[in-house]
Amino acid sequence: EGNRRLNEYTPVPFSFRDTGEIEPQGDLTMKWLIETFKPFIDTHYRTLPDRQHTAIAGSSMGGLMSIYALLYYNQFFSRAAALSPSLWIAPNDSMQMIRRSRPLPGSILYMDYGSREMKQHRKMDQAFAQAANLLLDKNIYLNCRIVPDGEHCEASWERQIPFFMNTLMYNL
Predict the structure, then answer these.
(1) In 3-state terms, what secondary structure has residue 116?
(2) Contact partners, residue 68, CB within 8 Å, separation at least 6
(3) What does pLDDT average to in each consecutive run of 10 residues of the chain (172 residues)?
(4) 33-46: b or e for each residue (b if 16 or more CB lie within 10 Å)?
């Protein structure tokens, strides 16, 4: 419905000519995820529900939310995969989000962008490098990739499953 998905999948405000103002509702999404969805999964399936064994993954806006979840809901998630995270929607606010975070030791992040999609957003390579450096400053264990010929689409993200799953499952 309208731009509702964009509101639900962003921790930072932004605007575009086609979408108008997008107000962040990422906290509401995370509240639902940790208070409703995760308890349901942990109750109905055989899980290891502790932080050490709980990961989150997403692509595009979901990738941005995965970084947010790892940084600000770190007591629940120790691991995250962010495929093509939409850092470009509000690069300054996204970097501030990383700067202000206080993740717990042992947090792990897989983050990638496709080489083809990098060319679609001005200075995306610089934003990617800046985000990676800020995450490393937070002592995040970071597996960072630029995917050869990778694009911003499900088919490209599907091919990254072995890479991010190896990172998320490392040392478990």
Answers:
(1) helix
(2) 11, 26, 30, 97
(3) 80 82 90 98 97 97 97 98 93 95 97 93 88 97 96 96 96 89
(4) bbeeebeeeeeeee
